[in-house]
Amino acid sequence: MPFLGQDWRSPGQSWVKTEDGWKKTTKDENETNKCVSDRKSYCKEEHDKENLILSINYDVAAKKRKKDFLNNNTKIPYFYKDKWIYVHKGSTKERHGYCTLGEAFNRLDFCSAIKDTRRFNYVVRLLELIAKSQLPSLSGVAQKNYMNILERVVQKVLENQQNVRPIKELLQTLYASLCSLVQDMGKSVLVGNINIWVHRMENILQWHQQLDNIQINRPTNTGMTFLDLPASLHLNIMHRLSDGRDLVSLGQVCPDLSVLSEDRLLWKKLCQYHFTDRQIRKRLMMSEKGHLEWKKMYFKLCRCYPHKEQYSDTLQFCTHCHILFWKDTDHPCTANNPESCCKAVSPQGFINLFKF
Description:
Blueprint: E1 13-18, E2 21-26, H1 27-69, E3 84-86, H2 101-107, H3 110-113, H4 117-134, H5 140-160, H6 164-183, H7 194-212, H8 231-238, H9 244-251, H10 255-261, H11 264-274, H12 277-282, H13 294-304, E4 315-318, E5 323-326, H14 338-341, E6 342-345, H15 347-352
Antiparallel strand pairs: 1-2, 3-5, 4-5, 4-6
């Protein structure tokens, strides 16, 4: 007699879905399949747990590598090398315009710029301006990059024995700023542990001592020297110097150069180059014979007014595209006349771009 009921299958049988379709199985087979499926699920869970542990360990290892990478003991700087960056105060749906000073300092290639003689003084001046007032505004990575670039600058000066004075002035400015900032650590003006900054201040003092102990080696060439040139060429070279302190140092080499370094026309051109007529009229100094003391006026004007900045190469800013870039890298400008949209950016102008 056939089995009657809502389930038309015979007792003890069930249907199981397989890869080949639905199949009829008995109770014993069903229990066997259930054990197999339980073992598979258990193995799958164990496999998932193992993958989870491996992923956690991988994340921990990645974080540790990143921490070690950014640790103060590592010597590998964290640099970007973008040819240009977008700088704009406003934002649109298509483009995010906000850019900080620290981000620009990270992304632009200042590491290679210090190797270029044309850009070296520009980068040094920028480092000095940041040390005076902008160091707390930098992010932790940017502050670390700042110290790494400064270390490379010092090493370059120690190797080629050039530009010693401006680097010593930069180190003095930075050390004085850090002394005042470390005293205000309760205000969280610096990123990182205070011991790290104390260690950096010790490095600055060590670099300054190394620069003090530097000894310029005499050239081994036995050919014509600077002193063998005629006086007219000596005077011509002096007219090309833009810093009065260099003239004073050159005049201490020998008596003949000392006489040439006192030339009144030389100091007059220096005053007129760096300062305006109005500034000069405010600081007039007359000698007993009724002549203008241009040399004394120059150093007096230097104490009252800033020097005229002069650089062989500077950063450029495109007012049409709002892009900041190095001159030789250029950028894909969309203006009809790209040259009219680009202007040179001084170190102070670079900082002013990010004052929102």
